[in-house]
């Protein structure tokens, strides 16, 4: 198991150094394209929408996982090192630590320069809410919440499945995440069609979201942040979130940062109220966003360190 864990670590380091492989065809973009094609096909079928959505979810996950397995198998047939190389490349494409940092810093830079208009534009790439009328605190809040939620989706959850099931496991998770971002909406168009996509993503994120709280606590401890407020915030507010999983990292980050996430936000002009997460209510500032990025990075290091330690422990148990 340790050999596979070392591949995960190598891919993580590659992601930290280079970020997303933008010059190469990205698997997630391919998954998004395939999801759209499958939707257009199955919406023309006589099947009920929920059944069509289940079929699309199964096909996307199956095709994505099979493609990853075939690529590794074909490369390994040429040479074992080629299989290792392809495995690392696939894992690299599943991690988004550096990319998440870049998106957050792209918001932070104009804020520090006093360019609120540009900061609003950059944060609109991270969140689905309306950003045109946000003040500095609103921009920071939106970006910090996105960093917190995506610490699971883009960092710890793909690591979790990579440690357990290798590159194919990480790809299957990314396929589920793509399904949710494509179809997991509670509106008239996707309430039935996207039911399976949303439920599958919820299922796969259940354990990683909760384990991430522990990694956040370790990251907060290393950064001399509010460790005990993390558990207070999670216990008090994580279950209030409309997502069964997103409330855990968001509450943990809010507790560590000493701020409140949630409140009123607008989507296409419709105001919605998210539950308040956190135990303190300090004002969000650019420093809050900088601290959130640092906490995300430390969380990633502690999570991957835990995965490596787990892999070593399993190997030792097998040997003895």
UniProtKB/TrEMBL annotation:
Pathways involved: Cofactor biosynthesis; adenosylcobalamin biosynthesis
Transmembrane segments: 51-74, 81-98, 203-222, 300-319
Subcellular locations according to the entry: Cell membrane
Keywords: Cell membrane, Cobalamin biosynthesis, Membrane, Transmembrane, Transmembrane helix
Domain of life of the native organism: Bacteria
Keyword Transmembrane helix: yes
Membrane-related topology note: Multi-pass membrane protein
Classification via InterPro entries: Cobalamin_biosynth_CobD/CbiB (IPR004485)
Functional note: Converts cobyric acid to cobinamide by the addition of aminopropanol on the F carboxylic group.
Family per similarity comment: Belongs to the CobD/CbiB family.
Name of this chain's protein: Cobalamin biosynthesis protein CobD
Species in which this protein is naturally found: Chlorobium phaeovibrioides
Gene symbol of the encoding locus: cobD
């Amino acid at each position: 198991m340790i050999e596979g864990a070392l591949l995960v670590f190598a891919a993580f380091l590659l992601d930290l150094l280079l970020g997303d492989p933008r010059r190469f065809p990205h698997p997630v973009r391919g998954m998004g394209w395939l999801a759209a094609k499958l939707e257009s096909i199955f919406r023309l079928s006589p099947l009920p929408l929920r059944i069509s959505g289940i079929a699309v979810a199964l096909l996307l996950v199956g095709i994505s996982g099979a493609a990853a397995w075939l690529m590794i198998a074909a490369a390994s047939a040429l040479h074992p090192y080629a299989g290792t190389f392809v495995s690392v490349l696939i894992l690299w494409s599943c991690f988004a630590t550096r990319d998440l940092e870049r998106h957050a810093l792209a918001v932070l830079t104009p804020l520090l320069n006093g360019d609120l208009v540009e900061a609003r534009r950059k944060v609109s790439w991270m969140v689905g809410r309306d950003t045109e009328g946000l003040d500095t605190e609103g921009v920071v809040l939106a970006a910090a919440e996105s960093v917190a939620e995506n610490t699971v989706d883009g960092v710890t959850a793909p690591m979790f499945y990579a440690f357990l099931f290798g590159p194919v496991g990480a790809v299957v998770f990314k396929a589920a995440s793509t399904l949710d971002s494509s179809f997991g909406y509670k509106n008239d168009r996707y309430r039935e069609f996207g039911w399976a996509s949303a439920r599958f993503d919820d299922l796969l994120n259940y354990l990683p979201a909760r384990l991430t709280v522990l990694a956040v606590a370790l990251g907060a401890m290393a950064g001399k942040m509010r460790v005990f407020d993390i558990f207070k915030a999670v216990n008090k507010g994580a279950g209030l979130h409309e997502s069964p999983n997103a409330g855990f990292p968001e509450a943990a980050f809010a507790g560590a940062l000493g701020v409140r996430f949630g409140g009123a936000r607008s989507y296409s002009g419709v105001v919605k109220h998210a539950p308040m997460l956190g135990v303190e209510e300090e004002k969000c500032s650019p420093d809050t966003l900088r601290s959130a990025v640092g906490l995300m990075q430390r969380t990633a290091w502690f999570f991957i360190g835990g995965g490596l330690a787990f892999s070593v422990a399993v190997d030792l148990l097998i040997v003895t």
